[in-house]
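Suppose you are handed only two things: the residues of a chain and a line of SMILES describing flavin mononucleotide. What would the bound structure be? This form records exactly that question and the answer produced for it, so the two can be stored side by side and reused later without any lookup.

QUESTION INPUTS
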Amino acid sequence: MSKITVDDKACILCGACANVCVSAQVYDIGSRAAVAARPEACWGCGQCVSVCPVDAIDHDDFPLDKCPPIDERHLPPIDDLVNLFRSRRSNRTFSDRDVSRDLVRELVSIGRWAPTASNNQGLDWVAIDDRTRIAELSGATVRTLLRWAGWARNPIARLAMRLVLGRENAQAAWRSLAGARSLADRARDGVDPIFYRAPVLLIGHTKPRSPFSRDDTIYATYNLMLAAERRGLATCQIGLFQLPLARSRKLRRAASLPEDRVPQVCLVLGYPQYQFRRVVLRRVPDLVWNPR
Ligand SMILES: Cc1cc2nc3c(=O)[nH]c(=O)nc-3n(C[C@H](O)[C@H](O)[C@H](O)COP(=O)(O)O)c2cc1C
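ANSWER OUTPUT
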């Protein structure tokens, strides 16, 4: 349990700590100061420490000397932010340049400044920067997809897929599997059709049966991707590896994914061979107000 105390000489009774802690309800507002009346309910988000205008909260998970003030002057203006979003692309052409492990560590670390359900912060990563291993995983993935494509030609398997996935999803899955043959052909020609010869493969994983793990993962991964762009790197999510990895013990072992963890996202990382120069168009989402 976290140790939380409020300095009653510093507290100005503004109530901000109690108000931002509306879900966990750790704080009561006493007559002289706020009181951390239910520290056992704290889920460690640190919002109370972050919001207190007079630094009156002593929370042992968030010592003030490790929690610097947010400096508004260093936050990007909206146009810069949107430009960053618009310029991020999935890149499938990588130069031969290696990526330093420090840089990968930095990016993974940046990923953590993302929301997680109940602040669970349960996402961890496996990084593979051994090119031979990445090539082996690519080959194993193509073989798995080819095997699945063989099964998917069986009418009973097709019916099962349709029942489990629904008609549209099953059709999309058949289309992807139909492409497995061409992946195998490209692999035979010396191309890496899965990871594009990227120097780093990242696998984000969480513990099983956590209902929002996927959401947590995607937010963190997008942080990581955007930060990678600003470090001159390129990324590409690799669903073609992710799906077989989630279902094949052999692939999991080949990737050394811990037995008790679920792969949630796979992406490649490296220095791009080409820079994208223009922003392209995107569908504008429908937005319906107050539908009935
Ligand atoms: C869930 C997901 C899975 C993806 N899987 C692959 C993949 O297996 N191989 C690949 O080359 N690109 C993959 N991508 C990249 C998409 O093709 C790409 O995001 C899309 O074409 C839009 O292009 P952009 O990212 O450059 O804006 C994936 C993207 C997402 C979000």
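WHAT STANDS OUT: Residues 203 and 264 are 7 Å apart (CA to CA). The chain has a mean pLDDT of 94.
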